[in-house]
Structure formats: C-alpha cells, structure tokens
Design goal:
The protein is mainly alpha-helical. The chain is built from 14 helices and no strands. This is Acyltransferase 3 domain-containing protein.
C-alpha cells in the first residue's frame, strides 16, 4: 500500500459514492429537524407539542452511521484528490474547502444559532423576544475563543481539518523515510491482503469500533461540540473511518467486496438495528448488575449496526445510482452547502411550528423540505453566482 500513489489513479469516478455522500449529509438535515419531536426534552432548542416514540428510534439509527459514513467517504475522496493532483494542491484545497467555511461559519452561523436557541427557550415559556435573542446572539462574539463549537454543528469541519492535517503530515513523513515507508508498505499490503480475502470483513472492523464506542461518555456516538480540545474516542472513531476510506480508494477490490454483499448478509444487516435498540434498553438497568460489561455488549451491538447501515447504504447507492444523473450530481454538488447552512434554518422553523396543532410527521416533512428549499434558493442566488462557489462547490476535475 502506498499512501500517495494508489493503483487506481486513472479509475473512473464512482457516481454512486457522490450520491451516498449527499445522502449522508441530507440525512443530517432530517436528523436535526426531528430532534424537536422527541417524546422527552433532550436540551434541544425547542420541544414540539406533537411528539413520537418513533423519532427516538429514528435518531438512534440515523445518528449511528451518517457521520461515520461521511468521514469514510471524505477519506476516500481525499486520497483520490492527492493521487490526481499533488499534496500541495490538496493542502490548498483543504484550506479553501474546510478552514474557510469553518471561520466563515462561526461568524455567520453562530449568532443565528444562538438566536434560535434563545427563541426556542422563550417560546417554551410563551414569550418570544426577537430583539433580545439577536442581542444575546451577537454578544457571543465577545466570548472568543471560548465556547467556539457549542451550539453549532461546525465540529465536523474541525475534525476534518484535524484528519486532513494528520494525513498530510503522514505523507510527508512517509516520503522522507523511505526505509520505514517500505517496511510499513509491506506490512499494510499483507494486512490488506488478509482483509480482502476475509469473507466477513465486517467482523474485523467491529473490535476497534466497539472499543472506541465503549470509551465514549454516552451510550452510542458522542457529539464533540464542547471544546477545541479533541474528544479522543470520537477522534479515534472518525480517524478509523477516514483511514478505511483511504484504504477503499487504494484497494478497489475491497470496495467491490463491500458493495456486492450477498442477500443473506444483507438480510442479517437489516436486523442489526433491532439488536442495538434492544441492547439500548439496558442502559438504565444493566445486565448482571454490571454497567461496564453491559455498555461493552451494547458497544458491540452499536458498532455492528453502524457498519451494517454503512454497507447497506453503499449497496443501495450502487444499485440505484451507478450511472451519471444530473439531479444526483446537482444535489451532490450542493450537499456541502445544504448541510453547512441548514441548522439555523431548521431551528427557526422548529420554533415557528412548535405550537401549531399539526401531526408531528407532517411538521417534520415541512421543516425538512422547507429547509432544503430555502438553502437551495440561497445556493442558486449567492453560492453559484459569486466567488464563494470555490468554497462550497467541488471542482469536478480534482475531486
């Protein structure tokens, strides 16, 4: 395995991976839109008057795999970008595509999000004050750099920046130490050969995934939005998926094995969410009275569900989106912007819908579709027509 020059340098673009990446980001919009419909208050901006237990199950399932899937594909496309251009170009593109949105997002989105949270709290008290919300929002600028990530979803950019930096440093060191590089390459190739010929690739991935999940604070996947200091179990998990994405691009045969899973294994994977949901019920009542052991068992079940849903997503994407499609390409190009801008829109709409006597599922559909529609209008009017498109729209010839 060569971390910089893979064997599939001139391989055709896999259009279904663009579709799956867009799906992961769009699912994030629905995920955040659903949080106000939880049957118990979870500390979200607002709690709707119409709730459902089904939302709890949806959140458990969708939260388990959407960002790991996204980070895996980020690793895949990062390795593709490095192989198609140069390391210097990759670093420059990450500065534009990751660092700039992170900085812009804090100044643009942070006050809007804080205002949304203040309005949500006010609405649950029956007294909404827009001026007070905006005033509190803009006062957060004086808090720099404390609480930089709290209340935002920009942590995903921060962790992508960290992983891209690690990848860059790794390549530089790899190229400067040829003897060590040769030894590591031989070992990696032996490992990959073992993985390629293992009929149950999933089983090899469960142990490291379950281990980092067990080390997290919550039962499931922690959201690292509290500090610039990396949450190491979370960083380890996303590094695992990012690295696996690099491996998939470096070894196309491994990707082919994953997206051509037999029907029996697919059926088994469809059942794994039920196992995870059942194990989650023991959080308040540990098996055998041992909390750590119960959490460990749950972590394996959660890891199994996580990888199963990722592999199912890839197989479904391969089955439906193998050929180029203009609509899919449009949403794939727009998906980064949609996810970047969606959260303040979602929260404001949740506050607006919270007290309306409408069934929760209809509200969820309205909020999700309106968020995408508003974001696409902004995409057409601002992003595609100005220099900002360099930040939010991928350059097709490179990545």
């Amino acid at each position: 395995m060569n971390i910089k020059h893979s064997t599939n340098h001139n391989s055709p673009r896999l259009h279904y991976l663009d579709a799956v990446r867009a799906f992961a980001l769009l699912l994030g919009i629905v995920f955040h839109a659903s949080l106000s419909f939880m049957p118990i208050f979870i500390g979200w901006a607002v709690m709707d008057i119409s709730t459902s237990d089904f939302v709890t199950y949806f959140i458990h399932l969708s939260h388990s795999f959407r960002m790991p899937l996204f980070f895996m594909l980020a690793g895949f496309f990062s390795h593709m970008a490095i192989n198609k251009t140069t390391l210097q170009h990759f670093v420059h593109s990450r500065l534009i595509r990751l660092v700039m949105p992170f900085v812009i997002g804090w100044f643009l989105l942070r006050p809007l999000l804080v205002a949304g949270w203040v309005l949500g709290a006010d609405s649950m008290k029956g007294d909404v004050d827009y001026l007070n919300a905006l005033n509190q929002a803009f006062n957060t600028f004086y808090e720099l750099p404390s609480n930089l990530l709290i209340g935002t979803h920009l942590w995903f950019l921060y962790y992508l920046i960290l992983l891209s930096a690690c990848l860059t440093i790794g390549i530089v060191l790899f190229n400067k130490m040829p003897i060590v590089a040769k030894s590591l390459t031989q070992r990696c190739n032996r490992l990959l050969s073992t993985v390629e010929h293992n009929p149950w690739i999933l089983s090899l991935l469960l142990f490291p995934t379950a281990t980092v999940l067990w080390l997290m604070n919550a039962w499931g996947l922690d959201t690292p939005d509290k500090s610039l200091m990396p949450n190491w179990p979370v960083f380890g998990l996303y590094a695992l998926f990012f690295g696996f994405g690099i491996m998939l691009h470096n070894k196309p045969i491994l990707l082919e094995k994953i997206v051509n899973v037999g029907k029996a294994k697919l059926c088994f994977m469809l059942v794994t969410p039920l196992l995870s949901l059942w194990l989650a019920s023991f959080e308040a009542n540990p098996i055998f009275g041992n909390y750590s052991l119960t959490k460990l068992v749950f972590s394996f079940g959660y890891a199994l569900m996580m990888w199963s849903l990722i592999i199912l997503s890839l197989n479904l994407g391969k089955a439906i989106f193998t050929k180029p499609n203009k609509v899919v390409r449009y949403f794939a190009d727009a998906s980064f912007w949609l996810y970047f801008i969606h959260l303040p829109i979602v929260i404001f709409l949740q506050v607006a819908f919270a007290e309306l006597e409408i069934y929760w599922l209809l509200k969820l559909l309205f909020i999700s579709l309106l968020t995408v529609a508003i974001s696409l209008v902004l995409y057409e009017l601002i992003i595609k027509t100005t220099w900002v498109k360099r930040i939010f729209i991928p350059i097709k010839k490179n990545i």
